[in-house]
Design a protein that fits this description.
The protein is mainly alpha-helical. The protein is built from 19 helices and 9 strands. The longest helix has 29 residues.
Length: 493
């Protein structure tokens, strides 16, 4: 059932600050300048720790990669509010919960304003969640002896940092190259890859240490130390190839005989959306598991903390710990949720010991084999990506029926057939449903395997970055063509 339009929000949206569009076409050099400024500000906030936060050292997890964030810094929540606001409103519009005609400039402007307002609200909400639920550790000596006051100061800083990213995204979109959100994600992943590479070279178990040992195993150890970098390059090449795989459907204009076009159906038709949604769901499951730490519900037994090392129920079953067992380091180690949790290879871990643990190891509480964890996680990730891929296509106007209507309204038809949206839909049905399944399964499988091999930047991060760089290259190429042939621009006005 539809809730109506977003017209009721217009009086509020009028007061939202906005980056005004350029008064004249911006050249390539100016676009690069504004993109560089936005990127510089992003890295400055990335490295500035919020006042009142206890500095900590840790690697980048999925959440930080996807949201271009760094826990404890001014961009602790990163672009998370922007992404969530966009996804929520697009899903509402696709599911017809709200009526939006994106071809109407006024309705489109209202939709974008509502998206900005929701993102601003989420900036404060997510910052509060991170601070209140101890995702961000505060200093041991709170300001004026008040933990609440210190938390409020931290929430304000983190929210303000995310608001700056919100408007930097507008600056890049209007004055720079591509999208600010994409730029920040790619920059965060690239920084993670560079930092990981330096760590592989200079750490105690790194390449330099291995080569300087002078032993007969120096070269093999150095090669093993570089394996995460090799896997990163391999994943980049695979995704780059997949980005170019597509099927092209020939089209022709009904009223202009001889003029035609092609509708490309890419192998990655739904891009990386399925793996983002699937990974976000798995991450929320991990948060849920951590929230159940030290919680117990004994069935046909009595809980006795002194009875066992792993807090088992005496003579019974601990239901909560069977669902998710979390150790003292807040790491999910056993239970049902553990078997659908991501598998990350330690950055400096030995490959032989790591794969040996996956093949021969067992879980600490229930003694289940680790290879079962690997198998269940990969299958679950692939199936979840397929489900989310289908869901995204049906709710965002990318299904065969929706695309056929769009092509028909543009006056396009398939050569050799009469102009009818049903005919176009039938032809598209031979490709889109199958490509959605195959493409979604591919990104899910590749992301899972990339994380297992220890690829730098995480598998999801690499998938995102390759797609972002591919689109940015296309935008840059188009801009160079426009600048070189300035007369072409005057003809198109």
């Amino acid at each position: 059932m539809s809730m109506g339009t977003l017209d009721f929000m217009k009086p509020i949206l009028h007061f939202l600050p906005e980056v005004s569009p350029p008064q004249r076409p911006t050249g390539l050099s100016e676009k690069l300048m504004w993109t560089g400024i936005a990127l510089s500000l992003f890295f400055i906030m990335y490295h500035v720790i919020a006042v009142g936060v206890k500095p900590s050292v840790g690697g980048s997890d999925f959440l930080q990669v996807v949201t271009a964030s760094r826990i404890g810094s001014l961009i602790t929540v990163g672009i998370g509010p922007i992404v969530l606001a966009s996804i929520f409103l697009q899903l509402f519009a696709g599911a017809k919960i709200i009526n939006v005609n994106m071809s109407d400039p006024d309705e489109k402007r209202t939709f974008q304003g509502a998206q900005k307002l929701l993102a601003i609200i989420l900036c404060f909400f997510e910052a509060a969640v991170f601070v209140i639920f101890a995702r961000v550790a505060i200093v041991d000596n709170p300001f004026f002896g008040s933990v609440l006051f210190t938390q409020m100061i931290i929430i304000f800083q983190i929210s303000f940092g995310s608001l700056i990213l919100l408007y930097l995204d507008e600056v890049v979109s209007k004055y720079g190259l591509g999208s600010g959100i994409s730029l920040f994600i790619a920059a965060g992943v690239a920084f993670s890859i560079v930092g990981g590479t330096l760590s592989l070279l200079t750490s105690d178990n790194g390449v330099i240490a291995a080569l300087s040992s002078g032993s007969a195993e120096a070269l093999p150890n150095a090669i093993l130390a570089l394996m995460p970098l090799f896997f990163t390059i391999l994943v980049f090449l695979i995704v780059s190839y997949a980005e170019g795989v597509k099927v092209e459907i020939p089209l022709a204009f009904d009223r202009a005989r001889g003029l035609g076009s092609r509708f490309p159906i890419k192998f990655l038709y739904v891009s990386n959306i399925p793996v983002i949604l699937a990974s976000a769901l798995l991450l929320n499951m991990q948060f849920f598991a951590i929230g159940m730490q030290d919680k117990h519900w004994c069935v046909t037994g009595v809980y006795d903390a002194a009875s066992a090392t792993f807090d088992k129920c005496s003579g019974g079953i601990d239901v909560i710990q069977s669902i998710a067992f979390v150790d003292s380091g807040k790491q999910l180690r056993d239970g049902l949720l553990y078997f659908i949790s991501p598998i990350y290879r330690p950055l400096q871990g030995n490959y032989g010991a790591y794969f040996g643990q996956l093949i021969n190891g067992t879980t600490p509480v229930y003694g289940l084999p680790e290879w079962l964890h690997v198998l269940v996680y990969i299958i679950f990730m692939v199936c979840l990506c397929i489900v989310f891929g289908q869901f995204w296509v049906e709710t965002t106007g990318m299904s065969s029926k929706d695309v056929a209507k769009q092509l028909d309204s543009s006056g396009l038809q398939i050569p050799g057939f009469r102009r009818d949206a049903r005919i176009v839909e039938k032809v598209l049905d031979n490709y889109i449903p199958y490509i959605v399944v195959l493409g979604s399964a591919f990104v899910g499988l590749l992301a899972a395997l990339a994380d297992m091999t220890g690829a730098l930047g995480t598998g999801t991060g690499i998938l995102l970055t390759v797609g972002i760089l591919y689109r940015m290259y296309q935008d840059l190429e188009n801009q160079q063509l426009f600048d070189t042939y300035s007369g072409l621009g005057s003809l198109l006005k």
